[in-house]
Design brief:
Length: 351
């Protein structure tokens, strides 16, 4: 009886348990299938990026940067997915310590955690530079997320633009730097450089960059504006150095003439004083006038030496100021024009 009743109960309960489990498994399985479908369609990285964008809280400085950089919605998404941070000098150096580009320029994209770090630029003359650097690093993040097939499609287009710049020494120097310090990253770097610095590119590349950059030309103009600040300092420094070289040569030549002239004049004066063969006062006065004329010419030459030396020293003072300004602008970039100074010759006295 007990056994029969137990069998009856078991028979009655088992279908209910199976029905409950079946009803539970159907929606769970459906959710799993939907999630698998979404994962297959979007890709794992896209889901990670989406979660990061949802949870990341940008600083007010980063928020302002996003507005000023004129990124598209896709560009903003990739930028935010890279958890961008604008950092002070010490923090930035620590963040980008293992990234040669970040240490030498103003930003870095770290592939190990897909993060962007930007240096806090406060120099008014470089206003807008952070927008360029942020866009440059964002394009690194884009490249990092492109499939191998997508990268292969872009490489010939990028290399074609690079070929057009074969005669640009600054561009070629950068490629040499990357080849030495970041081997294997040439196309990745070209992708960011061309997108932010080259005004005229192929329609195919323009269409590619338009997915992320709302106004690519404005970024290029900001880059040109920043370069102009350094170029102006470099050109003025080069002009001053050339002028100072010419002055230095002229001063040395004139001073040699001055010293040899005075040596000869002093010798001739001693001979004049020792002469006893003058027969008239007019002959004496005439010889004296010749000596005085020579002395006056030499004094005029010395005055010119002093004027050239004063000009040289004024140029040297300006060159030092330009050097300090350049050093200030390069404090974070760790690159830029090198200003050299030339020793100032000091004319000796007339003796």
């Amino acid at each position: 009886m007990t056994l029969f009743e137990h069998d009856s109960v078991s028979a009655g309960q088992t279908p209910r348990r199976r029905g409950w489990v079946t009803r539970l498994l159907v929606p769970v399985l459906a959710l799993v299938l939907v999630a698998a479908g979404v994962l297959a369609y979007l890709g794992f990285q896209r889901l990670v990026d989406q979660y990061t964008v949802w949870t990341f809280r940008p600083s007010s400085a980063v928020s302002r940067l996003i507005e000023s950089s004129q990124l598209t919605d896709k560009g903003r998404f990739i930028f935010l997915a890279s958890t961008p941070k604008i950092e002070s000098s010490a923090t930035f150096a620590s963040s980008c310590s293992s990234n040669r580009e970040g240490g030498g320029i103003l930003g870095c994209y770290l592939t190990r955690d897909r993060s962007i770090h930007l240096f806090a630029v406060t120099e008014p003359r470089l206003l807008g530079l952070t927008d360029v650097v942020a866009t440059h690093e964002m394009l690194h993040a884009v490249w990092d997320r492109l499939s191998a097939a997508e990268q292969r499609q872009l490489v010939p287009l990028l290399e074609r633009e690079a070929t057009k710049l074969a005669d640009d020494p600054a561009f070629q120097a950068r490629l040499t730097y990357y080849a030495t310090n970041e081997p294997g990253e040439r196309d990745n770097e070209l992708h960011s450089i061309i997108g932010t610095e080259i005004a005229s590119i192929s329609p195919e590349l323009e269409a590619h960059y338009a997915k992320w950059l709302g106004n690519r030309q404005s970024v290029v103009k900001l880059q040109v504006k920043t370069d102009a600040v350094f170029s102006a300092l470099e050109n003025r420094s080069a002009d001053l150095s050339a002028t100072m070289n010419a002055l230095q040569g002229a001063i040395a030549e004139e001073y040699a003439s001055y010293t040899s002239g005075y040596t000869q004049l002093n010798a001739d004066t001693r001979r004049f004083n020792a002469r006893t063969d003058f027969t008239t006062n007019e002959e004496i006065y005439r010889a004296q006038r010749v000596l005085e004329s020579r002395r006056s010419s030499l004094d005029g030459l010395y005055a010119d030496i002093l004027a050239k030396t004063a000009e040289y020293n004024a140029n040297l003072a300006e060159l030092k100021i330009l050097s300090e300004q350049t050093a200030g602008l390069n404090s974070a970039l760790n690159q830029g024009p090198t200003v050299t100074t030339i020793p100032t010759p000091a004319p000796a006295g007339s003796g």
